[in-house]
Amino acid sequence: MRQLTNKIILWVACVTVWSSYTQAQVFQGTPPSDWVVVEGTTSIKVPDGEDFKQSDLINMAQQEAIEKKFGTSITYGNFMKSYEGELDNYEHYLDLTSQFPQGIWKANLAEPSLTSHETEILRMNRWGRLKKKVSATEWTCRVKGYAQPLNQILPQFEFQILNGHKQIIAEQKIQDSETHLTVGNDSVFHQGDIFITRFRSTKSGHLVLFMDNGENAFRMLPYAAFDKDDDVKIEANQWHSFFDLSAVPDKDRQTVDELELMTDQEYDAIRIYYLFSETPFTKDFFFSMVTDTGNEIPKGYSQLPSITSAQFAKWLQQNKVRKTDLQISVVDLIIDNLNKPEYEK
């Protein structure tokens, strides 16, 4: 087994939705000329006894209002994995859509209106099987406010995500000047698989790569050995390989991180962010700390530098506003731990 000088292990948890709810008072006065009035309504059903944050629902309604007015740039992945065991078989399905509304909420024109009524929902187990009807509350939120449009550039780059066996898990291609995300024959990572990615852009520029598990966001690129760098320089129309020791000379292997994906659940989800810009990035305060995941790290491994998902979301939103040439693609991946004993049905 080859000896590695910088082998990274990443324990993951399920991806959750981050909130950027603007807790502003009702706006008074004359708004700036580029502010536009938007309205939106959204609803969710919450099983009785489960935690519910009104701020999350308000944020969802704000995003719906912005998308209805300005549209949205969406990169998504639908992943299905079948498993047949000695006693049972199942399929798990994940449809995680990452939306980037072409605007940002600036101020409220009225206080958000929240209403609720009792209802029922069909409760499912982890494998998507119907269980039984349970009591729930349906919450509806209506918002009205000002939003500022953004003029983001749609991605003009391609990438492949592969496992250590060089099998394609997912890839983004450019066809007729549009990007299309597809998945490979096996669309999940298995416990302990190595993450590898290849990247190619139509223009020269700067790349940063992040991974978010819903609690913490991890900086994948630049590598740990280049911590003083804010991004990775990319040459136009050339494939660049990352996290792949076989793609670099022996003398450079000590600077390349090899990323092994692990989960202590039966399966988990992670979200990968590809951010590309012709102009350089700046980390600002970014990744000045490393958070404790609570998992014991095996000997010979280290962790990626990280901050909280909320801090990352704020940083990303700031860059969406100030970097007019920013290109973003997001892909959601599953890590499947089939070696774990079957959970109680």
In short:
The protein has 345 residues and is mainly β. It has two helices and 21 strands. The strands form four sheets. Strands 1, 8, 9, 10, 12, 16, 17 and 19 form an eight-stranded mixed β-sheet that branches. Strands 11, 13, 14, 15, 18, 20 and 21 form a seven-stranded mixed β-sheet that branches.
What distinguishing features does this structure have?
345 residues; mainly beta; 8-stranded mixed β-sheet; 2 helices
Report on this structure.
It is a single chain. The protein is mainly β. Helix content is 9%, strand content 47%. The protein is built from 2 helices and 21 strands. The chain has helices spanning 54-70, 309-322; strands at 7-11, 36-47, 72-84, 89-101, 103-108, 113-124, 130-149, 157-162, 168-175, 178-183, 189-190, 194-201, 205-212, 216-221, 232-234, 240-242, 258-262, 267-277, 301-302, 306-308, 327-336. Strands 1, 8, 9, 10, 12, 16, 17 and 19 form an 8-stranded mixed β-sheet that branches. Strands 11, 13, 14, 15, 18, 20 and 21 form a 7-stranded mixed β-sheet that branches. Strands 2, 5, 6 and 7 form a 4-stranded antiparallel β-sheet that branches. The radius of gyration is 22 Å and the shape is globular. Mean pLDDT is 76; it is low at 1-5, 13-21, 74-98, 288-293 and 340-345.
